Amino acid sequence: MNTVDSILEELKSLGSASTKKTFLRHGAREPYFGVKIGDLKVIEKRLKKDYALSLALYETGNSDAMYLAGLIADEKAMTESDLEHWLEGAYWYMLSEYTVAWVAAESTHGYKLATKWIADKRERYAAAGWATLAGRLALGKMDDFKKGELEALLDQVLKTLHQSPNRARYTMNSFLIALGTYVPDLRNKAIGIANGLGEVRVDVGDTACQVPVAADYIVKASERWNGKYRKQVRC
């Protein structure tokens, strides 16, 4: 039987000092074991989707368990309240911009929450909102958006990105890439805005991470894209 305690013990056995050190540089804090994402994916395949277990794992406050919670979350069962609560506890970007944003994007609440979050002045919320919108585009959820809304969001990125909170700048850039990739009619406009923005500067701390050059990325991604949208954004 898979219990929270048994899973935490398993995660502890899989943790490594080097991975833990890497995660620390990126913003993780205790408690966590430093489990590689590949190892979490193996556990995900065994557990499959489990709404109750995902909620319980997230409540441990252990970053590895919280990430795993996102992988096994049942997006159809997640409520707005669940997702809001998860974002409150998502203290670093691996949780806020990936775990929470991915599950939110796949849920029926993605658009509503994303548009709410991008208007929030708090860095974590704004960053999660733009990441969620990018996820909705990757899933092909174009019916979310009213006529002219995507163009308006592009204009918003152009006008506000450089003045936005640090991690929000990163996910706004990611949204720009997603829109340019998955919305062919607006691809040229997205590339033009990316060029107009110039360099997007994000403080990534003591890491080797780099901000993708949106215009170049859009061109390469669109050349690879076969016109099919993703079935899920979690990975």
Q: Can you describe this structure?
A:
By secondary structure, the chain is mainly alpha-helical. It has 2 domains: 1-74, no CATH class; 93-235. Helices cover 64% and strands 0% of the residues. Helix 7 (93-106) crosses helix 8 (110-117).
Considering the chains and any ligands shown, give keywords for the structure.
2 domains; globular; 235 residues; 13 helices; mainly alpha
Question: Can you describe this structure in just a few lines?
Answer:
The protein has 235 residues and is mainly alpha-helical. 64% of the residues lie in helices and 0% in strands. Helix 6 (80-89) runs antiparallel to helix 7.
- List the secondary-structure elements in sequence, H or E: HHHHHHHHHHHHH
The pLDDT mean sits at 97
Class per helix and strand makeup: mainly alpha
Relative strand content: under 5%
The amount of helix comes to 55-70%
Radius of gyration: 18 Å
* Outline: globular
How many discrete domains? 2
In the predicted model, the low-confidence regions spanning at least 5 consecutive residues are: none
User: Major beta sheet, specifics?
Assistant: none
Quickly count the helices.
Answer: 13
Q: Please state the oligomeric state of the protein chains shown.
A: single chain
N-to-C terminal Cα separation, in Å? 25 Å
- The number of distinct β-strands equals 0
